[in-house]
Structure formats: C-alpha cells, structure tokens
What does this fold into?
Amino acid sequence: MTNQENRSTILEYIFRNAPVARSTIAKQTQIAPATVTSISGNFIQEGIIQEVGAEDNTTDCSPGRRKILLDIVPDRVYAIGVEFTSRHIRFSVCNLRGVAVLQSSFSAKETDNGNITDFITEKVKAILEENPSFASSVIGIGIAVPGHMDTHQDKVITNSSLCPQFSGEVLRKRLNIPIICENNVRCMAFGRYLFDASSPDTFAYFHVGAGMFCALIENSKLFQGTNYYAGEIGHTIVNPNGKKCECGKYGCLQTYCSETWLLKYCRLLYESNADTILPSLKPCADDLTVEDISNAFSLGDTLVGNYISTALKYLGITVSNLAIITNPDKIYLHGNLFSNTEIKEELMDYITQQLLFVDDPSDQTVQILDYDTYAGALGAAAYAIKHFYISNI
It folds into this structure.
C-alpha cells in the first residue's frame, strides 16, 4: 500500500477500535509495526490522534511495559450531514465521534418554491454564520438523498417531487465546501459502521420508512452495486396476487410494509366509515400519522391490527430470507413503526419462526434499533468524514 493508503487504513482502524495500542493496529491491519509507529507519531504531531493512557493489564501477569493506547481527537474538525425526503429536511453537525453539536429539522413544505437546492443552501449558510465556533472547522457536507444518486447527470433517481430541483454541483459552487451525495439508507448504514464500535465489519441495514431499502456493509466497505436494483428490497415480491405497486409489479413488499402504503390503507379505512377507531384519533384522514396507526394497533383496532400483522409476516419472511441468502454478521432493522413494543415483539416472533429450522438458540443475527429521526443526517456526516478526512488525511 502507498503511504496515503496506510495512513487512511490506520486512522479508520482507530476510529472503529479506539482506544487501541499500536501493536494491535499493526496486527489487525497487517501493516508493519515500524510503519504504524511512524504514522501514528506523525498523527500525534498533526493533532489528529492522541495518547490516552496505558492499557489496563491488571489481569495480565506478563512482564514488560504497559501498551500506550491511541484515540482520535474528536473535536479537531466537524462535518455537516443533510437528509431530505418528501416529508422533511434534517441537518446534523457532528464531531468525529458522531456527537451532534447542532441538529435541526424542517418540514418539506417549508421549501416554499419547492427548490430543495435553494433551501439547503440557505440553511447551511445560516448554520455557518450563526456558529463561528465550529464553522471554520467544517471539512465537508454529506447529503443523504431519497433514492439513487446519478453523479454523471447530477440528479437523484427517485419518485420524490423534491428531487428534480436538487443539484449537488450547484451546492458545491454556492457553498464552496466539499460535498458528497449518497442514498439515505446507505448513509445510515455507514454512520452505524463508523460511529458504533459494536457493529461488525459485515452487516445489513434494513430501513422501513416512506419507502424501504436495505444497505450492506461488506468487509468494512459500503456495497454500491452496479445498477439501481441494489438495495431496493421493498420491490421484492411477497404476494404475486397483491396490489399494484408504483413500480408496475404486483405484491411488492413495500405495498404492505412501507409507511406510505400503511397510511394509504388506513386513510381508506377512515374514509369508508369502517369499524375502526381511527376517526377518534384525528379530525380527518389526511392528518393520520404512523404514530396514530401504531396507537390503533395497541388499542385493539381489528382492521388495523390484521393489516399490520400481515405486513409484519411478510417483513419477517423477507428478513429471514435475507439472513439465509446473504448471511451477514448482523441485520439491523430501523423504522418508526418498530417504536411500538408490541409491533416489535410480533415482528421478532415471525423472524424467529422462519429461522427455527436452524438449531442455534444463541443466534443474535437480527436486531431492531431504536428509531432515530436523525440517522440519515448523521450518517451523511459520517460519509463526509470518511471521504474528506479519513481518506484524505
């Protein structure tokens, strides 16, 4: 590897495993100990990493000097993460540990003329002007987009009405800051990889929101694929006799499980005067939210409950198939719907039933994460840190 590659590899390893000794870095990265010592010394002089004390070897009776541990300097620089969807635009400024120093969220309706590029430009400029304490230390901006980014044409491949006005190139010129764009769920996955040391080097990140997407981290690399099919798990068919999806196929997973279709179904129930408690929760069908659907489920609404149970069954089948086919070390599930404990438990029951043919009671492959509204924005900041800091240090 070149010296630049060695520097990036060592720094990323410290990000993921700190506090860590030089000898451990050398062993795990297979970089010569002398090279690790030299580069880490340079990093310390440059203020990139720091020594944080000696390794606790109270249980180790071996003689010799205790190993000195290294860690990153978390507030040396900052990154801005932005996520936009058809419903919201969120901003997160974080340090190198993923600790947010500023977060803000806006409704997509606040874009006024609908031009998402103008809106992001205005808000980022305001953030920098109002926060001089970290403005001069911002190394780049990550943009989490609701679809696939076509970098050659500078456009997002999606059905979101906000995207035709989005241009990463225009943002770069207006803000004069390095900018990188990536799918929002891939950003979420990378944020988990970079900022959560408990995550393995290979895992799947399955997000259920307005749409559905599954990102994959494979051997510490974000899997991109070579076409726009990669990750579109919401368009796998679970019922060939199901409803027609906007993609043109019938019975896609997202026609049962996505928030968009859950809300569509429940609004139809509301307006048809069906035997449901939904009208008691909101004054009109358009005001219904995922939280309302979740509450109706917990309150024993039969119609809502039957639909959600069917959705969870199909989702459980899909997740178990994912575990069988791709065999990741972990599958993380993320979505607002899973904030409901009863829904979460029912989904895990379906997944467990699907995997019972494997006699492994210790299996901990699937984990449902706590819902984080800023996961996309924080992940976008992580992606900027990877490209504009770790890879270019």
